[in-house]
Amino acid sequence: MALPFTYHWRNLFVRKTTTLLTVLVIAAVVGTLAWVLGFGAALAGSLAVAGDEQTIIVIRRGANSEGASAVPVADFNKLNQLADLARDPASDQPLLSPEMLVQVSLPRLRDRGRTSANVAVRGVTDAAFRVHRTVRLSGRTFSTGASEVIVGVRAAQQFAGLQIGDTLNLGFSDNRVYKVVGFFTAAGGPLESEIWGDLPTLLSAYNRTMYSAASLRIRDGADAASVIKEIEGPAIDLSAQTEKGYWSGQTSQVRIYLAIVAALVLVMAVAAAFSIANTMFAHVAGRMREIAMLRTIGFGGRQILLGFLLEAVLLALLGGLVGCLACALWLEAIGHTKDMYGSGTFTTLAFDIRLTPAIVGLALAAVALVGAVGALVPAWRAARVQVIAALREG
Q1: Are the C-beta atoms of residues 211 and 97 closer than 8 Å to each other?
Q2: 19-56 residues labelled b (16+ CB within 10 A) or e (exposed)
Q3: Span 273-328, pLDDT tens digits
Q4: For residue 199, what are the β-bridge partners?
Q5: Residue 54 in 3-state DSSP?
Q6: Phi/psi class of residue 139: alpha, beta or left (left: φ > 0; alpha: ψ in -120 to 50)?
Q7: Which residue, 43, 33, 36, is CA-closest to 340?
Q8: Secondary structure in 3-state letters for 249-303
Q9: What is the DSSP letter of 142?
Q10: Rounded to an integer, what distance in angstroms lies between the CA atom of residue 155 and that of residue 191?
């Protein structure tokens, strides 16, 4: 015979102050955990999109990112000799994209321009749209030779001045005016945080004679490691990574940040377990006579143990729901899209953080486990109380 659920639920509110404080501690833990899980899921989702093993990014030897790289045109042309380059079925041209990367500082929308961040401006040719297959235009693209740009949807959501019809001052002295003429998506990948424009005009605007990098696609069935080895060999002597490897390296700083926050969440979870234990010890101490009466009318130690564990889990879930709600309200208030600097670049990567049902379920399951662990000792003590001793203490 088990004790009724309503009995345990009502007992949570006998000591309102203790229960409220415990709920607030748990809510802080779960709110932070839900945010970390949401950020991690957004990062993983973005990197999964940028995980094409057939796309290879080529930069200068010794450079750690496209922004710190300079590839002479003559070295870029050597890439045409790669036997495993994929080709465009319509034109039979190799899928090889020369690209230039610079930064422009733009004000953030979320704080109404009080802070700014660097956004990547990528100069490309038509080949880029065939190499980066996730890129999809929304509206028209820039015209060849024109001072026009298209904007990734994440960048447009995060930064001011990136709507269609807006203008940007670009160039070596910010003396070239470029007009925003369209948007593009990249299936949620890192490219959505960028601005794209015509490569020759941007090279001229920034007085550049070299590309920053090259992106290429290899044919189906080709071994990426062998192609990379050939690119890094003496004949070409450039550095290469798969798209997945490159973007994973660029987000290592974000991963370190998440690891630090996760460690703090673990410390907070331990504190929450102690808080639950303290609350349940107080419940046990104040209900000795009640426990004795339950034992007298036939409830055994196992029912008492499970009853106190259930109360602890209910307490933890209550705090967890408050924490998830607080996290959701916080994201609604400050916006779901966040940006962080890449490790090797000076530009930002934007992420859209969402509290999905899976994240909420995982956070609640974790806090329920914490509640059960925290209540185990006081529940065990309650289950082993002798009736005569309990009546005497009561």
Answers
A1: no
A2: beebbebbbbbbbbbbbbbbbbbbbeebbebbebebbb
A3: 777 777 766 666 556 566 656 656 555 667 777 777 787 888 888 888 998 999 88
A4: none
A5: coil
A6: left
A7: 43
A8: HHCHHHHHHHHHHHHHHHHHHHHHHHHHHHHHHHHHHHCHHHHHHHHHCCCCHHH
A9: P
A10: 9
Q: What is the dihedral of CA 75, 229, 135, 196, to 10 degrees?
A: -30
Q: Which helix (H) or strand (E) covers residue 352, if one does?
A: strand 348-352
H/E stretch holding 151 reads strand 148-152
Picking from 24, 45, 82, 31, the residue whose alpha carbon sits closest to that of residue 331 is 31
Exposure pattern of 79-117 as b/e (b: 16+ CB <10 Å)?
beebebbbeeeeeeebbbbbbbbbbbebebbbeeeeeeb
Cross-strand pairs, 118 = 105
In this structure, the chain runs to a length of: 394
Q: How far apart are CA 60 and CA 36, in angstroms?
A: 35
The token pair at 314 is 């209910």
Which H or E element spans position 112? none
| Strands 195-198 and 116-124, bridge-based pairing | parallel
Angle (nearest 5°) at CA 384 between 380 and 389: 135
Task: Determine the Cα–Cα distance for residues 371 and 276; give it in Å rounded to an integer.
Answer: 6
pLDDT tens, position by position, 321-351: 998 999 888 888 776 666 665 544 556 766 6
Place of tokens 């945080």: 193
The CA distance from 192 to 33, in Å, is: 27
Report d(CA 19, CA 215) in Å as an integer: 58
Q: What are the φ/ψ torsions at residue 344 (nearest 5 degrees)? A: -105, -10
Contact 115, 108 (CB under 8 A): yes
Task: Parse the chain into domains and list their residue ranges.
Answer: 5-48+252-393, 55-221
Distance, in Å, from the CA atom of 315 to the CA atom of 24, rounded to the nearest integer, reads 11
pLDDT at 199 exceeding the cut of 60: yes
Biggest alpha carbon distance in the chain? Answer: 93
Q: Is the pLDDT of residue 392 over 60?
A: no
